[in-house]
């Protein structure tokens, strides 16, 4: 057997004595240059290709020593002009654009878009469809928060929660896949209903997931809640008062961590959220740690809503889609068996749905904050204007305010704590 | 079994209003849907200046003159009966065919749990409107985005730069209806420009050469806040 020889070159430590052992003498005093307090600030470029920016975010930071004097965010590296593209697509063709924006919670975006179009057209969806959408939105709130939890902990130096949360996320990926056939780009909704009825056993899959998640959350909280490193890096870091947070447009858990109890599900309820029994966690100090606590509690509250919605779904009967032939497609069997249904199908697919002239702004509580879909129609099958009020975009605009005066190392934690997704910021 | 005849007829007729969305019952001339803020606005600023719409069932839109936007929005924010303390969104709508651009403010009052949409119309040859940054700091990036994508100038904005498109983007403002979907320049020209870019296209040179004065950097947050506070005090 051939023997492999490895050569090691041993370098000598200058601190060592002649015999190779460390010298015991104290360090010799070194003549340090006089510190130059008049020195100029330094500019440090951070991103766009940096894992801790959670996407392609570029921050140009001006530093005085280690203190941030100013932070200039540059965005747009992922700009795909979805809002322009949507003006050339029919109402249902826009759905695939929406889940590519927040790929961490795609179903919320799918639902929000069609909910806005339905509000504009005056369509009242069926009870089962409503419940399905509530389940989907709450499921994806947990989905988005789990990713945030994993990356937040990883930015603080803890790797284990990331593995735990991704095990749970994998279960949601499978639930997505079972319903829609896709793991991320779900495109699950259609105007007036869903892409299809839910597969058999899907509610049970969600119930199982809901029963399993609290254990993982407990494990993560055991690891993090009183962890010295996490506390040291988040307590009192990135603090913003409730008044400022509101004025700066913070929404979602970021705003609630500052003590402002604003949640679209409570303040402007949609889809019977006022009838669900759940609470809004509110922070006190508005720092990174409170944002962490708020999101952890939000996941548990989402599970409560999920259990209630699943209970209601068991009792709900009736169709999934609106029984209106101008909106919903005929069944595949009908299309294959009679001419009229086939023409009907063809017209709806090629022309699209005619929306009456009008407009609607429909706010939804997404996992990142308030997501508003603003649609304007002039009576055609395509929008005149399709605007997304992106929660992370407005949340990110607060970042320079949060950062000023902090150390550069805090930038990572503050950026992680506001939970951004660049796909939706750049759109 | 074939579809019921009536449902097929509905398809053939094309777009007709859905039977679900009837016009709100006006109850003998008095509209049932009154928005307290709109009524207060009418009383305070005069009916002639305001145009009120109800869309999508219960969403209220009020059109205000563009030159008085700060005055009216400030009143909506500060008046104790209104208290619109959250600026949800600032955006614009271009209907094309030379129609004026609409600047849309979505505001929400946490105190009274009330939403309102305020619109200003700007003719295409005068795309300028006062910035509301000093009222709501949330307007900072939202106004920059409208400036970037629609070319509307927000007077008094402390840091009005392009935000989504590159700083040196030359083709215009993409969300305007006169902007073609594939861009104004030909594909060959776009490729040529992309290939001829140097470092200066990716980085603002002044930012790289910080050794000199930091003259070209955008203002810091505290500078912007101080400026806004000064302006707010001046107006009040």
Number of spatially distinct domains of chain B: 1
Number of strands of chain A: 8
**CATH first level of chain B:** Alpha Beta
Unreliable stretches covering 5 or more consecutive residues of chain A: 5-14, 22-29
DSSP strand (E) fraction of chain B? 15-25%
The proportion of residues forming helix of chain B, as a percent range, comes to 25-40%
What would you call the shape of chain A? Answer: globular
Work out the number of β strands of chain B: 7
Which structural class is indicated by helix and strand composition of chain B? alpha/beta
CATH superfamily of chain B: NADH:ubiquinone oxidoreductase Nqo5 subunit
Largest sheet of chain B: 5 strands, mixed
| SSE-based structural type of chain A | mainly alpha
How are helices and strands ordered from N to C of chain A?
A: EEEHHHHHEEHHHHHHHHEEEHHHH
If helices are DSSP runs of H or I spanning 4 or more residues, what is the number of helices of chain B?
Answer: 8
The span between the termini of chain A is: 60 Å
Oligomer: heterodimer
Greatest contact between two chains: A-B, 73 and 61 residues
How would you sum up the major sheet of chain A?
A: 3 strands, antiparallel
CATH architecture of chain B: 2-Layer Sandwich
- Strand order, largest beta sheet of chain A: 1-2-3
Describe the structure.
The complex is a heterodimer of chains A (427) and B (236). With 427 residues, chain A is mostly helical. Chain A has 17 helices and 8 strands. Chain A has helices spanning 82-86, 95-99, 106-121, 127-155, 160-180, 202-224, 228-234, 242-247, 253-257, 264-267, 288-315, 332-337, 339-351, 391-396, 399-403, 408-417, 422-426, and strands at residues 42-46, 58-64, 67-74, 189-190, 193-194, 358-365, 370-377, 383-389. In chain A, strand 7 and strand 8 form a beta hairpin. In chain A, helix 4 runs antiparallel to helix 16 and helix 5 (160-180) runs antiparallel to helix 6 (202-224). Chain A is globular and about 95 Å long. With 236 residues, chain B is of the alpha/beta class. Chain B has a single domain, classed as NADH:ubiquinone oxidoreductase Nqo5 subunit (Beta Polymerase, domain 2, 2-Layer Sandwich), CATH 3.30.460.80. Chain B is 31% helix and 18% strand. Chain B has 8 helices and 7 strands. Chain B has helices spanning 5-13, 36-45, 69-78, 139-150, 187-195, 199-202, 205-208, 221-235, and strands spanning 51-55, 59-63, 86-93, 101-109, 114-122, 128-130, 153-155. Chain B has a 5-stranded mixed sheet with strand order 1-2-5-4-3. The termini of chain B are far apart. Residues 1-11 and 13-31 of chain B have low confidence and may be disordered. The interface between A and B is large, with 73 and 61 residues.
